[in-house]
Amino acid sequence: MNRYRFLTFPILLIGLGLVALLVNLGALSWGQVARVFDLWPLLLIVIGVELILRRAAAPGVATGLGAAVASLAVVAAIAYVSAGPAVPSGEHSGSAAAPLAGAESGQVALDGGGVRFSAHLADTGGDLYRAGFRNPNGDDPAFAGGSGNVTIRYGSGRGLFGSLGQRSLDLTLNSALPWTLKLDGGGYAADIDFRQGRLQGLSLSGGGISLNAHLPPPQGTVRIAISGGGVNADLHRPAGVAARVTASGGGSAIDGDGNHQSALAGATVWTSPEFAAASDRYDVTVSGGGNHVSIDSSG
Fold first, then answer.
1. 39: pLDDT confidence band, cut at 50, 70 and 90?
2. What are phi and psi of 192, to 5 degrees?
3. pLDDT above 90 covers what percent of the chain?
4. Taking the C-alpha atoms of 8, 9, 11 and 14 in order, what is their torsion angle to the nearest 10 degrees?
5. pTM of the predicted protein model
6. Among 156, 153, 137, 133, which residue's Cα sits nearest to residue 145?
């Protein structure tokens, strides 16, 4: 009785051998070969097609068609890596800046996970901001914006599941402007020092966030919104400044000026004594499960 023969992996081994041979002959570089990781979904497609053929066609026909599909995939992969440029390797650093251009306020919008992010204020002269970044594999951020807005986007990187290695971004913002920060994307660490300026608002979204923020004296009610599970936030406000923290979601906890509050379900709220009567204050909301927020008056 004829039986179906699963030929995808033998054909892939042949393809890998051909690629290694082309590298040894100088026709390909290992930097070009690294582009093959862009095509990892193709392997899933080939395996899926073979599984369908195994059930839907006669064994002999299925084996032939499966071999043809796998062979075409190997040929396409070799053509893809041959036609494209090499993937940059090693860590890359760079810088960026934008002119102030008469802006009266600033907003930073960061979109990208897995970034070690820091922001502080300084006299940047005629610049709205100055940025320095370090990234693996040439995975540099894209900067855009205008009229005081700064948008920073990171791609997914060249790794199998995104960027391989630690990405870092340091922003120096013009201290003459009030700023709003919006940080999106999970798995990042943010260190923010606004003690020498003005913060209009701060929002963070995504899971696995670590935040350490030194806050300036507020003007009016300044809102800080954090959404996502597994958040660990340390907020340091000036002495005597009123604050409230509301955390919703199971397993959340708040440490407010040394007082610990936790809730297994629902919401938990910590409020400083002067919050209700204060006109200048911080109002912090945290949503999502497994979050921990610490707020103190160490400045």
1. confident
2. -120, 130
3. 47
4. 170
5. 0.69
6. 153
CA 292 to CA 231: how far, in whole Å? 6
Contact between 293 and 286 under an 8 Å Cβ cutoff? The reply is yes
Tens-place pLDDT, residues 22-35: 777 777 676 667 66
Identify the burial level of 6 via C-beta atoms within 10 angstroms of its C-beta, where 0-12 means exposed, 13-18 middle and 19 or more buried.
middle
Q: Which residues contact 33 (CB under 8 A, 6 or more apart)?
A: 19, 23, 81
Closest CA to 179 of 227, 208, 213: 213
- Please answer whether residues 192 and 161 qualify as being in contact, where contact means their C-beta atoms are separated by less than 8 angstroms: no
The residue ranges of every structural domain in the chain are 8-83, 89-177, 194-299
CA gyration radius, the chain: 26
Place of tokens 């992996």: 9
Comparing CA positions, the residue from 181, 277, 283, 276 lying closest to residue 237 is 283
Structure confidence at residue 1 as a pLDDT band (50, 70, 90): very low
Rounded mean pLDDT of 233-239? 97
CA distance 216 to 195: 4
DSSP-derived secondary structure letter, 159: B
Pairing of strands 149-153, 106-111: parallel
For the segment 173-201, what is each residue's pLDDT rounded down to a tens digit? Answer: 999 999 999 999 878 899 999 998 999 99
- List, in sequence order, every residue forming a beta bridge with 96; answer none if it has no partner: 131
Please tell me the distance from the alpha carbon of residue 127 to that of residue 115, in angstroms, as a whole number.
24
135, 153 Cβ separation under 8 angstroms: no
SS3 category, 296: strand
Sign of CA dihedral 158, 191, 153, 182: positive
DSSP for 206-217 reads SSS-EEEEEPPP
